[in-house]
Amino acid sequence: MEFALFLGCNIPIRLKQYETSSRAVLEQLGVTLVDIPEFNCCGYPLRNIDLKAFVLSSARNLALAERQNLNMIVLCKCGYGTLRMAQHLMKENTSLREGVNANLAKEGLKYEGDIQVKHLLTVLFNDVGTEAVKKKVTRPYENVKIATHYGCHALRPSSVVQFDDPVAPTIFDQLVEVTGAKSVDWSTKLECCGGPLAGIHDELSLDFTKKKLADAKKAGAHYMTTGCVFCQIQFDAVQKRIEAHTDSNPHVPSILYSQLLGLCMNINKDALGLDRNQIDITGLERFMAANDPGLNSA
Amino acid sequence: MKGVLRTLFSAKVFILLKVFVLDVLFQRWLMRKDFLRWLAHMCIYGGFLLLLLMHGLDKLITSVLFDDYYPTLNPFIFLRDLSALVVIVGIAMAFYRRRLSRMPRPKTTAIDYYALIILSLIMISGIFLEGTKIVSHSRYQDMVDEYTGLQDPEELNALEAFWADKFAVASPDVKEPFDKDMLIEGEQLHEVSCAGCHAPPQWAFMGYGVAKVIRPIASPLDRANVHTLLWYLHFMACFFGLAYLPFSKFFHIFATPAFLLADAVMEEGKSDPANIATKQAMQFDACTHCGDCTTRCSVAVAFNEIPNPNILPSEKLVAFRSLLSGNGLSEKRLMTIQEGSHICTDCHRCTDVCPVGINLEDLWLNLNRYLAELGYPKPERWARKAIEADFDLTKLKDRTLSLTTVDKGFTSALTASAQASTFTVCFGCQDCTNVCPVVGNYENPKKVVGLLPHEIMHSLALKQKELALGSKMLWDCVTCYICQEHCPQGVRVTDVLYELKNLALRHLMAKTT
Fold it and tell me: Is the ipTM of this complex over 0.90?
């Protein structure tokens, strides 16, 4: 199983632990990652500004992966949704695609549209499979309740992103349950983290974040888990900022799924980068079954 | 000043020395990054430095170091031409890189070419000067008068024949074919009178090549005193280059080493803030406009669709410098800087790749902060504010919509897009509004967000441009796609809002400028 790893702009500089933990987990699960250093912005930040610029930016990445005949694995949900959307738009609109290809041709690139864009979670669920993941879990969690945050841009519009059932998705919950943790049901599970409005309308952005944190707490979650750069920043760095300004924050630390899985696969702590999270998540280890190193060598 | 003295009298002086040798003189960072570019740069800079010290400043340096210095003797005569060749090879590589490299590069400006052109002019005028001097009979005559002391016409003839035969002097007095004995006598005279101070001009291989080519027209050139003209041209080119140096790209010769040295010994948080500020100001001059940042930029590809050069880091830096220079920039210029500056994902790649080590990321943060102070924040934020000031939707109930504001061009822009044109099938069920979490966030959403999602769709059907583009809802949309997912008619509500945002920005920018 081989994929071109698409990191985007934020992970290498602001969320390095997502990269290192995902690499470590995927390596253990037999997924080979290929780096393409020429990758550029996924196009997501350009969507408010200019449709054609966003599609071109996405398409250049797609064309680069296509040149090496590789499917893409994306860690960020916004990046995933954006790349899928660009594929969709270029399929639907040939003149848009021709315009894009005219620009790509300047670099000797071409977008044909025959590679697949996948997200870390869909690769784990569909390509690797929960059974194979479960086999690698050597220190399962016990009695920990986790709130899964699906992320809008992976889930919707469902006809374009084809991630999971948009109304009643389960893949993230199943992947969490594989680790022994309990995935709680909570009311705003499928709603927005507030990230897209950060820097545009901060007040509204924070309304969303706070509401979700309160809901997750109400459902009894000890932790929240994400599979997206923007959601994680919102529930980690931004939550920490919220806590600095108010006493009433519900305090639901957020962990990246690759960290959550990696920890119970007994993966090297440096690779997981738990201490890189803004809010301390090391307490999660209290919920682990007694460490059995014998299992790990399997 | 205190900081400078303290640095000089501490262990840091060794750091300075190391940085000077490895980074300033040898430019190891460049060699590691791109060997060909390092080679081009070393050719120009090494060759030119040798020419400057050995040839340009020969009276001050070379003749002091070497008692028997004559520019016409080896190794100087040979080294001069060799250095020139090295510089020319470097310039050719630089031209090649600018013109033919396939990677998207920043725009090459006149300033970029100026440096290469002035260098080429110095080199070419020098070589032609040398060539015309080699063939010039009057120069030959001057040297004979000055150095040989020969009087006998026969001896003079013999020497001239030898120089004409062997060293390409274009003599009007002696004609080929030369008598063998005469040449032998000439050679003996040459050994006694000339060879001590003048190596065979073939050693100046470039000038000699030129001499061979122009020899047939040497006499008229000599009569027109072309070599004096060329001397003036050569001298003026050097002088012009020197005079214009502080205003040209050549200034990096001083600014970049100064920045590298300052950067090596200054520590954020420890050094005097005033010194840190100076270092930051130095960054602008240290930039050599090499374009590495732009080549590596994550959003540079957008430049193909949004032709705003301020997207490209190498150009954004230039814009920031002009912004800081205090000359009031036009509103239009400020808005292009604003747009370019915010099409940036803060990915840090430009900073990582800068060969001089300029902290570009830091500069962009400062630029955005500065632009916000001037009233030009992130375009989305700016648009939201502009709408707030411009459109008062609460007054709408007293207003009858006039059909004259119908803008057909506006909706045709939308119907051209497959996704945006889906608004036409909206039947007004209000599902989108009912499921919208932004609408749900407010007690009185209409007052806060202006038109609600279904109303925006409706205003599109009525071709009401001002209404559709003037709703704050556009900028309050969290793009969660819940509305789109729920629409029973398949209207791609979120995508319509995305395209409306694109149009609104263009509309507002055009309106403001």
Answer: yes
